[in-house]
What we know:
Shape: elongated
Number of helices: 27
Strand content: 15-25%
Bound molecules: adenosine-5'-diphosphate, magnesium ion
Oligomer: single chain
Strand order of the largest sheet: 14-27-26-25-15-23-24
Number of strands: 27
Structural class: alpha+beta
Largest sheet: 7 strands, mixed
CATH topology of the domain at 420-548: Calcium-transporting ATPase, cytoplasmic domain N
CATH architecture of the domain at 420-548: 3-Layer(aba) Sandwich
Distance between the termini: 57 Å
Amino acid sequence: MTNVFYLKGLDCPDCGNKLENSIKELASVKQAQLTFALGKLEVEYTDETEKVVKLIKEHGCSIAKETNGEVVSSVKEQEQHLVKTNNFKKIIFQVLAGGVVSAVVSGTVLLLAVLLWLLEMPETIVITSFAGAIIIGGWATAHQGIKSLAQLKFDMNVLMIVALTGAVFIGEWLEGAIIAFLFALSHTLENYSLDKTRQAVKELMTLAPPTATVKKTAQEMVLPIEQVQVGDIVIVRPGERMAMDGKVIVGSSWVNEAPVTGESSLVAKTVAATVYAGTVNEGGYLEISVTKLARESTVSKIIQLVEKALADKPPVQKFIDRFAAYYTPAILVIALGMVTIPTLILGQELLTWIYRALALLLVACPCALIISTPVALVTAMGSAAKTGVLIKGGFYLEQMAKVKTIAFDKTGTLTKGKPRISNVTSFDIDQKIMLQAAYSLEKMSEHPLAKSLCLYAGELGITTLPVALFKVQSGQGVTGQLKQQGSDNAVTWLIGNIKFLLSSGVEIDEQARIVLNKQVASGDTVIGVGCIPGSSSKGILAGLISFRDELRPETIEAMLKIKKLGLDTVMLTGDNTAVANKIANLAAIKQVASQLLPGDKLTEIKKITESKGAVAMVGDGINDAPALAQASVGIAMGASGTDTALETADVALLGDDLNKISFLVVLSRKTLRIIKQNIVMAIGLKLIAVALITTGFFTLWMAVLADMGTTLVVTLNGLRLLKIRDIDVSK
Length: 731
Ligand code: ADP
Ligand code: MG
């Protein structure tokens, strides 16, 4: 069985690794994987749930949520049991657990001890109080540290034990108590702020409600979403969230799709419309026929992608992890040298140098450094996902910050991709027959032009014929043979751009040429319909169909913002030059490359990368796959629910909103900046502290404060990414 736990109180990636390893050591555990950025632990085991839960608790974590409810309830029962049987035990447990309570109690005891000391009470009383503060504040850490020591692992907890024992040993009771208190406090604060960085991602996970109201044989039942089957009918009342992806079968309403697309405008839904789990029904009563299982719904996919993205460590983080493995032992050796060299060789005072070595141990904790990158990434990717920008990994966020040029596909990206037919002309053939041939073939294509043609022909009441040998020439057109009733003389039909028809042997006569030129000059996309009889290699042009596509409403503003950010824009299209120029003009894009095949788009991206640096490519994901893959960052316009776009690109814009590109640029630049700041701060502050310690300026508690301060500052700095705004062009 596989169980997923979401943990609370996981405040250091190193502790995470240890928990993961000790779970892996359990006999019945096959696999265990912990994603620190999410606090997510996935365990595959045969039984021993109890042992896993016990280990989690022993590592100072609690379970916020897990996938098969029973564990949490059994933990809750245990805790309730504890309350009932022994209140005193529970209080002791809380005080020593290392959380808020420990921090508050040890702080209070510390204040009390200082007061007693100032009042010049007998030494035994004062020392006992200080000892009390040390035990309360340091218990949880010491507990962990002893376990690590037993396994010969040197970590922060071990350093802490050494420092605390050392302080007591040299009689620095006050220092010891302050350290223990600060340590408990920093744990609490770190936990709190780290949980906050995970918040954006967590919000995503709670989007879909856990239960659905299912209508079964005139009865309503509330079922957990995991039990709802495809084809079930789910009732969604006004104000409720959709629990499942599905199609409306009864009713109509307005739906807020912000949770899935990041766009908070209301979308009208009537019978046959698709709705997504997590979106909110703002209007009327709806009945929905479920089309996807809960774990396959669009939100689930989004969540899985974000989780996967966070589990893949970007290069910066991998480097830091490797660094940390050698770091702690190295520090222990240096501390040992600090005690032995000055005292044994230079004959200086032992206590002074023990004290300084202890300060070094305290300040040396690499937590801030280890945490510096993940806190920024998890916050950035979480807040991006919330606005409908799905980033497939920290790596792409790093790349995006370095991009110099953004290339755009035209149809479906800069334009709405819903071209309307503006002209139909046929030559020497009945228009209906020409359209019937075109319709029959385009019915099998996914291209926006094809869809529009099908709609048009359908409205005219034209029917389709069966097609044989259908072929898609990506970025050019489609071909196939029609089986006309009563005749077995196979004719090959071709539909696509003129260049493609010409290269396939279709000839265009003088009369057709005149019409063609006129249509092209008007700035429309013109496709030709040609046919080649089975026995011949030459064909004739049967007709021309023109399409007019509009810019997306946000295109102009989006391009302005991108330029304001100092980026170049380029348009790459397979369409003819006249249309390309017209659209580029409207969108204020200066650089245009037209009549490109999908492979040419790739070459174009390569060229720009070589001459100008990293390029991001934005495409609709239908035939731009090679270019999207070649670009440093491939961005897909991922009209919610199109799985291919979600899967192939590095970044998906769920709401199909070009405005999100500038947001992505701003976010990525800021994230990279914050990561760099964090690394510099983490290392810089440590170096300063070490310098101060060796010169004797630093006391022990200052060392702890410096360490805790750095970790907190780094985390808070990462949290700034929750509030990233897109740039404003109106200023
Ligand atoms: P864009 O780069 O603008 O998105 P595409 O690469 O999708 O354009 O297509 C380029 C050109 O190829 C279209 O303008 C059209 O002329 C032709 N074409 C591609 N697929 C089809 C199709 N299914 N039916 C007709 N024409 C097509
Ligand atoms: Mg396209």
